[in-house]
ABC transporter permease (Cohnella thailandensis), 348 residues
Amino acid sequence: MKAKYFEPFRTLAVILIALVIAFVIISLVSDRPLETILIFLWEPLATKGHIGNLIEMAIPLMFTGLSVSLLFRANLFNLGAEGIFYFSGVVAAAIAIHASLNGFLHPIAAIAAGSVVGALLSAIPGILKAKWNANELVTSLMFNNILFGVGLYILNYQLRDAKAFSSASYKFEPTALLSRIWPGTRVHAGLIIVLVMIVAAHVFLYKTKWGYELRMTGANRAFAGYSGIRTARVIILTHLIAGFIAGMGGSVEVLGMYTRFNWVSLPGYGLDGALVAMLAKNNPLSVIGAALFLSYIRNGADLMARLSDVPSEMISIVQAIIILLLSAEQFLKFWKNRMLLKEARKHG
């Protein structure tokens, strides 16, 4: 095997190790281990409805995974997609409730507003990083709490329907809702939007001057600066694009899956996006497979909890193992060194 195939192989090995450990845990916990494992592996794909559920969950994971992958590619450990995803959903909900537009313009306006707000909010930690070298991890995590608090205030005091039995907004105008694209499921037009964004991000990253500058800045900011790249501008631009994508994801999720805004806690998709980005090795096109895989095992765990005697929390162990092994730089590194040495001897 050539060294260039090492990272895909390493990711596959991590996934297999995590699944094997999950199967061992199931065998120890369940009274019917083989049946339970079969439920976990097969049920997410067993019916049209289950496949639809898998794709529905993958859509927001693709948005946030794509957003975080661009930041990680620029060597920016920013986890602010979580708060932006939530707050942009609030913005899109406000327009879906109060604006009066036709069925074509209404969702476009709501999604555009959420996306622009997401970009502007994301630019703040980007500017702090570019100008004053503030730690983007700290500032983005603090922004998550701020955006959640402000968003919850808007929900409770500006958008809340007093007639609802919970903390939920007024109903969205029907013209604002995204249409279903697969009859018999809740798969909506957001799938098309996110696939277009993934292709656009791939083209941006690998076919444009700005994408090259982003990759160079991520590889070595000091060297990129010496090469004439304005790294501060690159950092701010990356934050703007990532925030735009995360904001679009929150807006699409709200308009595609709900008729009211009722998130009273952070949905978690932003942090999940980091896992998707790690699985995808920060490659935009690979985000599709990574998001579908994460959605697959989560749906499998949920169905397993309902149809067997193993709780769905088991999947947290799988995710933790994947994160630990992917972030362990020394895992299987000896094999990579061996392949590089073999190739060097061959060409030497």
Summary: The chain has one domain: 31-309. DSSP finds 14 helices and no strands in the chain. Residues 105-132 form the longest helix (28 residues).
